[in-house]
Amino acid sequence: MARRALTTTAATLTATAALLLTACGGGDSQSGGINRADSGSSSPSVSASPSSAAPEVKRPVIKLPSSFQLPFESWTSSDPVEQAVLNDGKEQLRAGYEAIIENDPDSKNRAFYDTKTGFLQSQRWIRTYTDKNLTVIGKLPVFDPKVTLAKDKAAASLSYCTDESKASTKNRKTGEVKGNPSGTDPEVLYVISMGKNNQGVWQAVSAHSERGSCAR
Predict the structure, then answer these.
(1) Which of 126, 144, 177, 215 is the most buried (most CB within 10 A)?
(2) What's the structural domain count of the chain?
(3) Domain with 75 in it: what CATH number?
(4) How do residues 163-176 score in pLDDT, each as one tens digit?
(5) Which segments carry the region annotation Disordered (predicted)?
(6) Do the beta carbons of residue 149 and residue 171 sit within 8 Å?
(7) Edge to edge, what strands does the sheet with 202-211 contain?
């Protein structure tokens, strides 16, 4: 698959991003979504279980219901720093969908994995669902992860693809279920600019998405 070169600093990735179901409440390919954090900023502390990336830091416990599956395919690296980026990037995405499902745009779990700027973007994305009484259901595979580290290993780009073909939105009040319109490419590429805070947590600063740029 053709893929443009990833940058290794947060400053060059300045865009908001949609996460899921562009036509079903997620906005267009540049509406609020997975977001990133400046390497020097910190996030609210949350009582949680430790992560393998940084055992000394307590991470939030992210819980998703069985009605929404978010499988991560081949989400591993032999490089420990890259694996730490993958681990926190994974939980950042899971926390976003947890916030949508729990109808909580102010989610502390999501804030843990965002910088202040990144979390403002996250809130806008989450509210594109919650303001319309929408939740998410189905299955959203996340695949083809790639990490590019800055030379100082304090910033990184994380890219991955999602497949929306089996995911839908559901109206909390009416129960109406909608998927992407016919003819919409279900695969979306995300490039996430990430920075490591002083606790060692990789946080989202900004993100860019592009529909139709993935291929299995």
Answers:
(1) 126
(2) 1
(3) 3.10.450
(4) 999 999 999 999 99
(5) 30-58, 165-184
(6) no
(7) 142-149, 155-163, 187-196, 202-211
